[in-house]
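Sample intake sheet
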Amino acid sequence: MKIHLRDGLPYVTAVLTYQGKELSFRHVLLDTGSGGAIFSTDNVLVVGLTYAPDDVVHRIRGVGGSEFVFSKRVDTLAVGDLIVNDFQIEVGAMDYGFDIDGIIGMDFLVQVGAVIDLAKLEIRAATSSK
């Protein structure tokens, strides 16, 4: 899958499936400095993904500060041909001062064995022959 640069940062399209409903995000940051995948609360409401009283809430911290998020398991999370089933994401406000749909972090990247090729601006599986 092609990576597109926006303001010097690497973005991909990600597809999230929750309770059989699919949602595509065009502006998802590839972030090897993030431990987890996070998506905007406003965006995932479309597929009925909302906070429930038994969801785990915790605070995440990053360069831009901290925020409270809740964890939720989704059917699948995919970036091109890289797919993880029954995957845990975090959901939060993501009010970072710029337009972003989500973040793909190391949890996903390691699980799929992703290779981020900046010379070709693409992401693929390590076993891919491309």
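Comment: The mean pLDDT is 92. The domain at 4-125 is CATH 2.40.70.10 (Cathepsin D, subunit A; domain 1).
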